[in-house]
Amino acid sequence: MSHKSGRSKNFKTPEARFMYVKHMFYRDTKKNDDGTPKKDASGKEITQQSVTLIFNKAITPISTFEACVMEAIRDSSWGESGLTMLQQGLIRLPFLDGAGKEARRKNDGSLKPGMGPDVWFLRVATQLEAPVRYLDPNIPAVYDEGKGAAHPGGVIKSGDYGFAVLTCFTWYNAKNGNGISFGINMLQKKRDGDALITGGGVDVDEFFEAVSPAASAGLGAANMGGMFAGGAQPQTAAAGGLNGIFR
């Protein structure tokens, strides 16, 4: 099936909380279904920036994004018939519930930091270069590595708040059918938030205890009784406005 993708105009989101913001600074290689890197026609690996945006349901309902979704659908080869497809549930939407399966850890089902029944979230990405800003419109912000270093453009971490400039677009592929996604064109931090530790790390300052040199004597690898000598043997949110599609 041939599909002409439709796009909305750029739009600025309401305030969101950033999650996995590191991927706006360190690009990921896109993968094929078999896990191999995706490559363009020249054989170069395709990389992307990405971030997850978390929205408070009471402040920013999913219906906030209704206009841009309908604009992209009308701009596509689906045209007005795409709105009927949307009502019939034939178009996959990217809005994810903060208490759904996508918000949970795979190993134990617990909610990831920042998630909960009062929020919904959106994953956005771009293969282009989206600027990331905080303190200065002309100086890129940098990722907060937790070292407390200052930077003229400011530092950003997961858990901070701000907005993104997005574009909504339609797509079709044989595996997943019809869908809507969002591309990111800019990210700007507005204020600090509590850090979201999503990779299993800890806040060193919270748990660190000072140890005297005498107390730590004899704990070198050579004095551990050979312990390590042999080596070690690792949900989609319901959307409701257009007859209940967005809510």
Overview features:
247 residues, mainly beta, OB fold (Dihydrolipoamide Acetyltransferase, E2P), two-stranded parallel ribbon, 3 helices
Report on the structure:
The protein starts with 10 loop residues before the first strand and ends in a 40-residue tail after the last helix. A hairpin with a 3-residue loop joins strand 11 and strand 12. Strands 1, 2, 3, 4, 5, 6, 7, 8, 11 and 12 form a ten-stranded mixed sheet that branches. Strands 9-10 form a two-stranded parallel sheet. The protein has three helices and twelve strands, in the order ββββααββββββββα. The longest helix has 10 residues, at 66-75. The protein is mainly beta. The chain has one domain: OB fold (Dihydrolipoamide Acetyltransferase, E2P) (Beta Barrel), CATH 2.40.50. The model is unreliable at 200-208 and 212-240 (pLDDT under 50). It has helices at residues 66-75, 81-87, 204-207, and strands at 11-12, 16-19, 28-29, 47-56, 91-92, 96-97, 119-126, 132-133, 142-143, 155-156, 161-173, 177-191. The radius of gyration is 22 Å and the shape is globular.
